[in-house]
Specification:
With 218 residues, this protein is mainly alpha-helical. The chain is built from 7 helices and 5 strands; from the N terminus they run E-E-E-H-H-H-H-H-H-E-E-H. The longest helix is centred in the middle third of the chain and has 44 residues, at 107-150.
Length: 218
Amino acid sequence: NKLTSYEVKKKKLHYYTCQKCKGVNLNANSSKRSLKKGVHDTFIDLLESFKLDQHLIEPFKAQIKRLLKNHNNDEYELKETIEKRIQALNVKSIILVDKLMNDIIDDYTYKSYKEEIDKELLQLNINLKSQSKKISNLDDFVNSIIDFSQNISKYWALGNFEIKTKLQELIFPKGLTINPENRQYLTNEINFLFALNATITRDSGVSKKEKASINTGL
């Protein structure tokens, strides 16, 4: 059942109690006198468990980029198409110079074709720069995802009530429960980002004889 919070004002201590169960009182914070670790601290421990070891961050980045690339495939395909067209026009330009040098075409014809090629190349390079910037922004987005996931416990601990609530709803969209005996949190659903963290961490423990999935979490 749902928990309600209350404060013992004389001691300035906060607790959670079950609305229907009897005898379920959980201290919110840890203290020297508390027999068990506070549920706020155990919640921070839960968030810390999503933090990746340093050597797993690059594989995590790679998986996120794979995911974003799948969702933004049109952007990558357009960039590739532009690059191929630029390459083809550069080859065409070289052939044109060769024809001029070998008197296959005259100056007027050369300048006419060269002008068309240069005009198209100029526009293509502008488009390529714009497209590359979009893809570069995706890389920046990946870095912000890494920062967010690696510091989620800090953001929660320092956040006000509204931030804490939003983070909890983001990470655990269907909420979570706590076992009052061992203070262990149980979840039915975890946000994809943090579930992916857990999957990568698990796959990193696979023995050398086994093969971790290359599509982990996708």
